[in-house]
Specification:
This protein has 7 helices and 5 strands; from the N terminus they run H-H-H-H-E-H-E-E-H-E-H-E. Strands 1, 2, 3, 4 and 5 form a 5-stranded parallel beta sheet that branches. The chain is α/β, with parallel strands linked by helices. Helix 7 links the parallel strand 4 and strand 5. Helix 4 packs parallel to helix 7.
Length: about 180
């Protein structure tokens, strides 16, 4: 399979070929497919993307009990302590269970495949250790609408979802605000 196949091919690949058994990590093959993914800027309305995200979340396969989510943040060089705290509070308010390890990348906006903690979060969902990834805003996933739609399509294929804290719910932190460890 060519290296530039991207998320569409990962979605069509059996889970055993995507996640290392018992580790919750993406295989080298799946990682190379993601790294090789190509993206073109696509203009899409925020409402359309939110509608698609909600559709994917509603289609997610709810486990017995409650959803488990991975808290994820993207920053520019600092540990997002208050953001991760906000994500945990929001998840618990939704009745969701929270994966014990919060994940964040400090590289700033980059392709999803170039973010090691994002890749780990995806592997946790694909491996069945969580059902969704929770961020403070869609831009934490991608500001490129085509890449965001690819991510939603990917999660739909695995029965997972992306969730974001509604902007009117944010009482602790705002994306981009400097935080300390």
């Amino acid at each position: 399979m060519p290296a530039n196949t991207g998320l569409r091919e990962v979605c069509a690949t059996p889970v055993a070929s995507v996640v290392r058994a018992g580790s919750g990590e993406l295989t080298a093959h799946a990682h190379s497919m993601l790294i090789g993914s190509t993206r073109r800027p696509v203009e899409a309305g925020a409402r359309r993307l939110e509608s698609l995200r909600r559709e994917v979340q509603e289609a997610a396969i709810e486990p017995e009990g409650a959803f488990k989510v991975v808290r994820y943040a993207m920053t520019s060089g600092y540990r997002p302590a208050s953001t991760l705290d906000l994500l945990e509070k929001y998840a618990r308010a939704q009745g969701w269970r929270v994966h014990p390890t919060p994940l964040w990348d400090t590289c700033g906006p980059r392709d999803l495949a170039d973010r090691p903690s994002w890749t780990r979060a995806v592997a946790l969902v694909v491996g069945g250790y969580a059902q969704g990834i929770l961020t403070v805003a869609p831009e934490q996933v991608s500001s490129n609408s085509e890449e965001y739609v690819e991510a939603l399509t990917f999660f739909r294929a695995f029965g997972g979802f992306l969730a974001h804290v509604p902007s009117n719910w944010r009482t602790v932190a705002r994306p981009g605000a400097q935080e300390q460890a």
